[in-house]
Design a protein that fits this description.
Blueprint (H helix, E strand, L loop, with lengths): L6 H4 L10 E10 L2 E8 L4 E5 L4 E2 L6 H14 L7 E2 L10 E8 L2 E8 H6 L5 H21 L1
Antiparallel strand pairs: 1-2, 1-6, 2-3, 3-4, 5-7, 6-7
Length: about 140
């Protein structure tokens, strides 16, 4: 839904801290499944998977909000590396896709998983920030149980 809803539809407006990017989705393969971490400039964060598992509503926790905002903020550095898109396929088994929700439309950055996980990719830090959001969501979920 976030990929097809305009910023006006969500009520988000550019700010000094988030002038171009207001959200990011990171898709990557985990075995036969795809995981998607969503984060927004408001601090909303969720995990979706192509299996039955997911975590929604992490913005109620400061640690999740901070991680989500850091992930979105860092993505602004990579806008020039992205391409505009209106199609949102899941990545192949050896790829990672970052979908940046900008005030001018959705942009995509598609890169290889091996260089990300080995730390040699210039996008490894962005992937790490997405993983930090996932970690905070997981910790909040574990505390609830």
């Amino acid at each position: 839904m976030m990929l097809t809803t305009s910023p006006q539809g969500t009520g988000v407006k550019p700010t000094k801290e988030f002038p171009r990017v207001y959200g990011i989705l990171m898709d990557w393969p985990i075995g036969e499944q795809i995981a998607t971490v969503f984060s927004s400039s408001t601090g909303a964060a969720s995990l979706y998977t192509t299996s039955t598992f997911g975590i929604i509503g992490g913005e109620g926790h400061e640690t999740v909000r901070a991680a989500a905002r850091a992930f979105v903020g860092a993505s602004d550095r990579y806008v020039a590396d992205t391409l505009p898109t209106t199609e949102f396929p899941y990545p192949g088994g050896d790829r990672v896709c970052f979908y940046l929700l900008t005030f001018d439309g959705v942009r995509v950055l598609d890169t290889d998983l091996a260089s990300i996980t080995s730390g040699t990719s210039k996008y490894a830090d962005l992937f790490g920030l997405g993983q930090a959001v996932l970690t905070e969501l997981r910790q909040v979920t574990e505390r609830r149980q």
